[in-house]
Design goal:
This protein is an alpha/beta fold. The protein contains six helices and ten strands, in the order βββαβααβαββαβββα.
């Protein structure tokens, strides 16, 4: 039976408390691969819980993290953008929060800490990529309609980075995404190539941003659901994790 539990956790670099969820099959006592689920710009939501439960059905232990802190969620696009921009302007902070959540994932008794992955949607795709960019020992990272800009250090802060990315990377991309243009996609490919990453990109024609979100319906802004891309990208993620684990 798939079980989902809300958890509250801390961070050594912050006095904030964070509120995420874990999902797993409670009928199995064996160690299993652990997957970190990184939320979109609005914060931890029912969408992330649903994806985590689908991962649990596949035999994974899923941890849907909270980047912003308990109670900090965007209730509209303006609030969500303001929350995301706190981290767009401070990639060191983003990295610290990601590493904290990743270490927590590995600490759960049901998780095989040698078999870990991360997936992210929209802003969460950037978060998952930054975990790999930091040199953490995550085996595979999957970005669904993510954001691709490489991190830079803040004045007075130290960005953890690696010259060689050991994680396998899967990019699932809507070719008409206005937030991640074809040029952005190529720039990411060049970055990953320069760091000797094992990467692949699957681009979907006539598909924009947020293609996995059934509630996305703003074609004028390039944000809209696409059932075929949603189903195909999830299958590609399954194949990817089957291969690396």
């Amino acid at each position: 039976m798939i079980k989902t539990e809300q958890i509250t956790y801390g961070d050594v670099n912050s006095e904030l408390k964070f509120q995420g969820t874990i999902s797993f099959d409670d009928e199995s006592t064996s160690h299993r691969p652990g997957i970190l689920v990184c939320h979109a710009y609005g914060g931890h939501s029912e969408f992330d819980i649903q994806k985590s439960e689908k991962l649990a059905e596949l035999g994974y232990f899923a941890f849907a993290m909270d980047l912003y802190g308990a109670g900090r969620r965007g209730s509209n696009p303006q609030e969500s953008m303001a929350l995301m921009n706190e981290f767009n302007s401070d990639r060191v902070l983003l990295q610290e929060r990601m590493i904290n959540a990743f270490n927590l994932l590995k600490s759960f008794d049901r998780v095989d800490e040698n078999k870990t992955g991360a997936i992210g949607f929209c802003f969460g795709g950037k978060c998952a990529l930054d975990l790999a960019r930091a040199g953490e020992d995550v085996k595979g990272v999957v970005s669904f309609h993510g954001l691709y800009d490489a991190p830079t250090a803040n004045p007075g802060k130290t960005l953890k980075s690696t010259t060689k990315i050991s994680s396998s990377i899967l990019i699932l991309h809507g070719y008409e995404d206005p937030m991640a243009t074809p040029k952005n996609m190529i720039d990411l490919a060049e970055e990953l190539k320069s760091k000797s990453a094992n990467w692949q990109i699957h681009a979907y024609s006539n598909v924009g941003h947020a293609f996995t979100n059934p509630n996305a319906d703003d074609r004028n802004s390039g944000l809209f659901y696409d059932q075929a891309a949603d189903e195909h990208s999830w299958q590609e993620m399954k194949n990817f994790f089957d291969l690396i684990f």
